[in-house]
Amino acid sequence: MPTKVAEDFLAALADELAISDARYDQACRSYESLGDWLHRPESSVRQYDPQVYVQGSFRLGTAIRPSNDGEEYDVDSVCVLRDLDTGDLSQADLKALVGDEIKDYRRAKGIQKPVNEGNRCWVLTYADEAQFHMDIVPAIPNSAQRRILLEAGGFDTRWADSAIVITDRRLPNYEDVTDEWPTSNPKGYAEWFQERMGPIFDERRQILAETISASVEEIPIYRVRTPLQSVIMILKRHRDGMFEGRYDDRPISIIITTLAAHAYEGEAKVADALFAILSKMDNSIEDNGDIRIIRNPSDPLENFADKWPLYPEREDAFFEWLDQARQDFAHLAKQVERRQLVESVKPRIGVVASRAAERMNPPSSMLRPAAAAVGIGAASSGAPAFPNTRREPTSPKGFA
């Protein structure tokens, strides 16, 4: 078990990494503004019932501050045209349809920087002082077809209602009218993630709602801070520091988030959650004899590790990172002085470790800044023990 001061430091580190409510609100205003634009009378997509919503770390409440002032926040969003079907148009048609509206939106709003096209999305970059860009993925619903495929495979269909298909210009059938589109389900994933946070999320969401005199339903995931969210933020920053200069090899955030959420068992303190998660993080990696599989909980037919066979160095990098994280945080757990705490993780965490040590005196908040706070808990001693070798992969729980 970690020392009391190590517990305090980890909670402060999560607070230091968290982005402000103002940043989240800025992201919300941006995608809501685009949604309003798509519903204006002159819109070329209004008839298809467009919906724009945020996905990824901004939706889950696991976004972290950029490592330096030169980096931008990456706000991932989806634009779903709900009254279209895969038989109505090609991926290229949908991409162009949405893209034209985004370009018109940029001009109308006076956004100076041009709209860029990514493989799957359009990138809308705001002014430098805003320090963020929004990736907008065109999509159409795919619930019925996905439910059929999941049922055929014996998989959980709880999240199928929010399944979508998206565009990817790298695919050979990109310009063909076909049912074979890339699939996704960010809404379903967010619901699964909220479920994995357990009763702690519900309790803290209720407290926040009462504090600001709002209904529970009005409080989005990102406004509540749970130990699971805090751990994911810490692990992502450790990953970023370790793979500086090796960006293509670094473990992707969705893998870290998924494995951490599987391993979380409702621990109430950040430190307890971190060490429990690190000890079991590779338990939910399957091996079918040929490849490793990290299933998308909201769509178990999707493998988040599908690039590992093509780039085996990425699989090696994941286990390299996990081993290093176990070593670094086991060392941190034994420290009793702030200087030693900082030095134990600064090579990977960076200057944010020093800032976290400076803010340890105030109580760590269980909610986002400006919300209610709770203490860290009783002191303990010793250090967590992590497995020395890779665990044999098994079938993960949580899909049935």
Topology:
Elements: H1 4-17, H2 21-38, E1 50-55, H3 57-60, E2 73-81, H4 91-109, E3 116-117, E4 122-125, E5 132-141, H5 143-152, E6 164-166, E7 183-184, H6 186-211, H7 227-242, H8 253-263, H9 270-280, E8 286-287, E9 292-293, E10 295-296, E11 299-303, H10 312-333, H11 338-349, H12 352-358
Parallel strand pairs: 2-5
Antiparallel strand pairs: 1-2, 3-4, 4-5, 5-6, 6-7, 8-9, 10-11
Helix pairs in contact: 1-7, 1-12, 7-8, 7-9, 7-11, 8-9, 10-11, 11-12
Features:
400 residues; alpha+beta; Beta Polymerase, domain 2; 2 domains; seven-stranded mixed beta sheet; two-stranded antiparallel ribbon; 12% strand; globular
Tally the beta strands.
11
**Any low-confidence stretches, pLDDT <50, length ≥5?**
363-381, 395-400
Average pLDDT over all residues: 89
Shape: globular
Give the termini separation: 33 Å
Report on this model:
It is a single chain. The chain has 400 residues and is an alpha+beta fold. The protein has 2 domains: 4-18 and 189-358, no CATH class; 21-184, Beta Polymerase, domain 2. Helix content is 42%, strand content 12%. It is built from 12 helices and 11 strands. It has helices at residues 4-17, 21-38, 57-60, 91-109, 143-152, 186-211, 227-242, 253-263, 270-280, 312-333, 338-349, 352-358, and strands at residues 50-55, 73-81, 116-117, 122-125, 132-141, 164-166, 183-184, 286-287, 292-293, 295-296, 299-303. Strands 1, 2, 3, 4, 5, 6 and 7 form a 7-stranded mixed sheet that branches. Strands 8-9 form a two-stranded antiparallel sheet. Helix 7 crosses helix 11 and helix 11 runs antiparallel to helix 12. Residues 363-381 and 395-400 have low confidence and may be disordered.
